[in-house]
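Minimal example, chain plus guanine.
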Amino acid sequence: MAELILGQVLSYHGDPFIHGPDAVHIERQGGVVMLGGEIVATGTADAMRKAYPRANVTDHGTCLISPGFIDPHVHYPQTAIIASWGKRLIDWLNTYTFPEEMRFADPAYASEIANRYFDLTLANGTTTVCSYATIHPESVDAFFTAAQARGLRTYAGKTCMDRNAPSGLQDTAKSAYDDSKRLLDKWHGQDRLSYVITPRFSPTSTPDQLSALGALWAENQSCLMQTHLSEQTDEIAWVKTLYPTARDYLDTYESHGLLGMGGLYGHAIHLEPREVDRLVEVGASLIHCPTSNTFIGSGLFDMETMVARGLRVGLATDTGGGSSFSMLRTMAAAYEVGQLRGTSLHPAQLWWLATQGSARALRADHKIGNITAGMEADLVVIDLASTAAIEQSTRRAETIWQSIFPTIMMGDDRAVKAVYVAGKLT
Ligand code: GUN
Ligand code: ZN
């Protein structure tokens, strides 16, 4: 039977970075009809009631009905070490991350954390993530098994590292290729799951490993490839010593077949002009991780330039370098980073980044990230007065964006009233 949900329905008919806030339409008394995992119709509540008189109706009142949040750069294995104190990137990896990632050799632990991770992300209204696993193939199996059981559209890959990591966390160029290929063949395209080729970053891969993964990507062009790029200045200096003939950090990927459309480059803060030009030329995606970039002390992403250059930009938590599972909190951090750079991102732009912008970065915007007929029915229902602090602030709102912005800045999982995955209430 068709499900009809009523509320203030948010949809996009353009990109608010290009077309302004009016690219976002909010139907104040709207409805969304879902059937068979998809959105079959949307419009005014009255029109939907008339068109689907036998639908099962849920009225969410003045809550905002939005596409589910999409988080295109996370490390699910870092769930338990989120908010670990006092380190910058390389020290943080060695002190907190690598010891925790060692534990994923145990499939039972990997499964426990994968399920805990999805409990947390769904509670925060996030319906799609793109995750790094650990070097252990079992960590990919655990993640996809948990995602599949929940019916989620999900992206992930085995993290590959063959140097500068503890020996228990190293593979080789050959085993990285073989294990990644086996996992790709097993999971890619199953239900709503996609395999992502995942060299962690240039410091933890030999040139041979990068080449092997570049070859795997060339052989499997329907896969995305994810890695880290120019997150901290010390890291960039280290990359220069490890790859002395590379023109810049991006060149360590480019010269091994790891630059292309479908490449997701996390952080991308301290880019040189040649790097930006090449990323634009190939149509790559950059993933902005603002809570991580402030928490680990990495720097301020240049949203204005990257968007003006036409790059696809997604917005992500980077759990657990990032300090929150919430995409609302992540939008707030993106706003604050923008302010520090002299760019006030409009709430329409922030919301778009957390939904359709991230879907575009994942090249999945024809399936997720919008509320229109034919899209997959992954939705989040947001209470715009979820706390006393937010409620009193919205009382003065004269426009819809004024009533949404306090939730962006102060909201968290308490604002998430309902989540639908493939049309089903979770
Ligand atoms: N660079 C390489 N690995 C990582 C990671 O796990 N988190 C972050 N933030 N940066 C990285
Ligand atoms: Zn990361």
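The pocket of guanine (ligand 1) is lined by residues 75, 89, 93, 97, 200-201, 228, 231, 292, 296, 318, 321 (CB under 6 Å). The chain has two domains: 3-68+370-425, 69-361.
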